[in-house]
């Protein structure tokens, strides 16, 4: 794949049944788990730290994924760690943060350095999660800056897995049509 580029002689690692659109560009130390998908115009740079994307996770069109450099004030820097069954909406920006499992990141949301998102979370479209914030599992977060809005309903919790499964089916169709 021409869109998988090395940085310091490190290429992205792509596991089984992963779809990476030809217009996406991935640099450096990036790992993408089984059945995940990277859609058109995604830019991901694992250059000054690493990016880890779990299983059945989808990163939708125009999203930007990056990391924080190691420094004297932050010796480990901030890698970008994304769990399993995560749906990242169009044009989201994730920078040096940690996302648990079964999360929906709304379109245009921004999650900043050092933020940590628990499992089973909805982050509304356009929401800004400031640096180093901790988002508790099982809630909807919205706003700029984000606020905890309410607990998720069971139908919303169920949707988190449904969304991930739908994107697995869609990426399978793309792989079949483009192979």
Automatic annotation (TrEMBL):
PANTHER family: DYNACTIN SUBUNIT P25 (PTHR13061), PROTEIN YRDA (PTHR13061:SF56)
Organism: Psychrosphaera algicola
UniProt name for this protein: Gamma carbonic anhydrase family protein
CDD domains associated with the record: LbH_gamma_CA_like
Pfam families associated with the record: Hexapep
Superkingdom of source: Bacteria
């Amino acid at each position: 794949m021409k869109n998988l580029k090395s940085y310091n002689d490190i290429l992205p690692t792509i596991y089984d049944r992963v779809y990476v659109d030809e217009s996406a560009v991935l640099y450096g130390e990036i790992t993408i788990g089984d059945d995940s998908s990277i859609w058109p115009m995604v830019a991901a740079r694992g250059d000054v730290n690493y990016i880890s994307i779990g299983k059945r996770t989808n990163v939708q069109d125009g999203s930007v994924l990056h990391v924080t450099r190691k420094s004297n004030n932050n010796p480990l820097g901030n890698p970008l760690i994304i769990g399993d069954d995560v749906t990242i909406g169009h044009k989201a920006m994730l920078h040096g943060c940690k996302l648990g499992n079964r999360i929906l990141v709304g379109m245009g949301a921004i999650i900043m350095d050092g933020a940590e998102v628990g499992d089973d979370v909805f982050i509304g479209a356009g929401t800004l999660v400031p640096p180093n914030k901790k988002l508790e599992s099982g809630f909807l977060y919205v706003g700029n800056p984000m606020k905890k809005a309410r607990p998720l309903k069971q139908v919303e919790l169920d949707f988190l897995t449904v969304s991930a499964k739908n994107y697995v089916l869609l990426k399978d169709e793309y792989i079949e049509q483009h192979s």
